[in-house]
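Incident log, support desk, overnight shift.

02:14 A customer reports that sequence design results differ from what the structure should imply. Their input is reproduced verbatim below. On-call engineer (initials T.W.) acknowledged and began investigating.
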């Protein structure tokens, strides 16, 4: 295939900006709340299914072929793909947080689709097969198993619960089946060792660094580690008017102490870099009933694996003593851990070269957000390309990136893919 790759290309291949921007716009309407402008396509929800159908249809119209693996990941390839190894995979996720933006994840997937389409249209065939992927449930907003799809392809099945459930206790089994996946055959979705030559993820920065510095492109050197705990606090539901204060086992007040302890991990104790409780569910959530159960999430992050472990131990210890003090039962019902990872030096060089050839100003920076790439890092060399986020905000409706930056990132992805595939 070397000789094929070296034949004269209609170089430089160009991203079709109208097409890419149209798709970003159209996918951004799916799950959009017209009042807030925010997008809610939580993984395996009805709106997520709509978004997935949109992507699969766009790929079909583009003359590409899609399939869905057992984990619900959407894999898009060239129509004449031979299943020839190794594969250069590009992508991200299209599920969102609750009331999020239209670019987080979706941009990287649609740009990957665009790269495939441009290469297919120009009949580019390098030494690698090209594949675009939309990983299932990266955010973990409804089913608290973030990175679900990328954990499966990278073989981390043992780290997933046997029966994943959403925040309301419903099994993943049916929702996964509805998108064409199957919990019983997840092992069939694991990417065999050596089958993926490289994984490239283009993403918005979600922070202020590129914009502040006036840079067009960010080359990610490391991705933060995360430990995400789902915690249940069991007290005793009782009447708010008749139960004396000293006879209560109030799950809400116990939960408040847990929330402050999580914040304190990073703010006061500085055990890890940042720590957040972003979701709280109260049961029965009724004004005149002392809450019986609270379920909350704790998201701990650090680029140092040891500090992350220390933070997890510290919060588990604190929760044990809080349970005793408050007369409640506090248990960790699910845990997802993603280690901090470095990107491939070789791929970083390739991205920098592509950016330089295209005349884009670039810097190297770490990622404080988690990404599917850090799971894939277990089975393939990975790299990430960042573009600026307006005002540095993300996971909210105000998330935005200028069109010229979106195009610059996609051009760098295309060029880097061709450099890699030509080798
Ligand atoms: O939360 C994260 O860092 C990622 O966007 N899921
Ligand atoms: Mn996100
Ligand atoms: Mn993302
Ligand atoms: Mn009553």
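02:41 Re-run completed on a clean worker. Output:
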């Amino acid at each position: 295939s070397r000789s094929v790759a070296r034949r004269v290309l209609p170089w430089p291949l160009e991203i079709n900006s109208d097409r890419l921007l149209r798709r970003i716009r159209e996918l951004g309407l799916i799950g959009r709340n017209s009042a807030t402008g925010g997008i809610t396509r939580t993984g395996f929800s009805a709106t997520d299914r709509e978004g997935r159908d949109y992507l699969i249809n766009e790929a079909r119209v583009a003359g590409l072929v899609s399939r869905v693996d057992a984990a619900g990941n959407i894999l898009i390839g060239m129509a004449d793909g031979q299943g020839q190894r190794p594969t250069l995979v590009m992508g991200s996720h299209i599920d969102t947080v609750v009331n999020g933006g239209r670019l987080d994840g979706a941009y990287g997937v649609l740009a990957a689709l665009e790269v495939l389409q441009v290469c297919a249209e120009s009949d580019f065939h390098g030494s690698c097969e090209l594949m675009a992927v939309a990983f299932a449930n990266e955010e973990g907003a409804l089913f608290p198993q973030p990175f679900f799809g990328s954990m499966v392809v990278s073989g981390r099945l043992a780290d997933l619960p046997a029966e994943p459930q959403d925040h309301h206790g419903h099994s993943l089994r049916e929702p996964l089946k509805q998108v064409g996946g199957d919990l019983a055959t997840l092992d069939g979705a694991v990417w065999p060792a050596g089958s993926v030559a490289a994984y490239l993820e283009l993403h918005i920065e979600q922070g202020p660094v590129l914009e502040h510095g006036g840079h067009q492109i960010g080359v990610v050197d490391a991705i933060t580690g995360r430990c995400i705990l789902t915690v249940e606090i069991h007290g005793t539901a009782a009447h708010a008017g008749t139960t004396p204060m000293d006879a209560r086992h109030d799950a809400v007040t116990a939960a408040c102490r847990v929330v402050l302890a999580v914040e304190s991990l990073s703010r006061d104790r500085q055990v890890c870099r940042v720590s957040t409780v972003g979701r709280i569910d109260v049961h029965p959530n009724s004004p005149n009933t002392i809450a019986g159960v609270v379920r909350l999430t704790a998201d701990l992050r650090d680029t140092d694996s040891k500090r992350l472990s220390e933070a997890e131990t510290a919060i588990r210890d604190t929760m044990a003593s809080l349970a005793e003090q408050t007369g409640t039962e506090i248990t960790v019902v699910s845990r997802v851990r993603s280690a901090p990872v470095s990107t491939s030096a070789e791929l970083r060089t390739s991205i920098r070269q592509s950016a330089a050839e295209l005349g884009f100003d670039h810097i190297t920076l770490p990622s404080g957000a988690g990404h599917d790439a850090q799971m894939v890092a277990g089975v393939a060399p990975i790299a990430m390309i960042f573009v600026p986020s307006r005002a540095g905000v993300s996971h909210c409706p105000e998330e935005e990136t200028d069109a010229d930056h979106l195009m610059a990132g996609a051009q760098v992805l295309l060029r880097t893919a061709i450099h890699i595939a030509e080798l």
